[in-house]
Design goal:
By secondary structure, this protein is mainly alpha-helical. It has a domain of about 45 residues. The protein is about 25% helix and about 5% strand. The protein is built from 2 helices and 2 strands; from the N terminus they run ββαα. It has a two-stranded antiparallel ribbon. It starts with about 40 loop residues before the first strand and ends in a 21-residue tail after the last helix.
Length: about 130
Amino acid sequence: MSRPERRRPGAQSPLLIPQVEPVRTAPAPPSEPSTPVAEQAPRSTTSSDQRTTVSSTQNSRPVMIDRTFKLEEELVRRSETAVLRRAGEYTSMRAFVNGAIAAELSRLEEAHNGGEPFPPNSSSFQRGRPFGS
């Protein structure tokens, strides 16, 4: 007994016809006159990680860099509890980790650099095995 020949669906198959549903959006609230294009904040794209950041003279955000670290489970769980219990102080784990790193940097700069900030690293950083191993 032979197997029946398998065929792919044709272009007119009901499986290949897209079913587009209408999208309902809330009506736009009445707004004030729009800001002219010349007065809007300039947009710039960083080429290193292809993120678009908005820079403004009044409200500028620091550029964020993605990093992946393995952390001890107990430290992560304790940190999560601290963030949950101190919700007014820390809005997220990212804010908590950034604050912890900033506090440790301040301590190290005070102890080992005469209170002066460490200059930002402008070269590559060693990855892989830890220093001194």
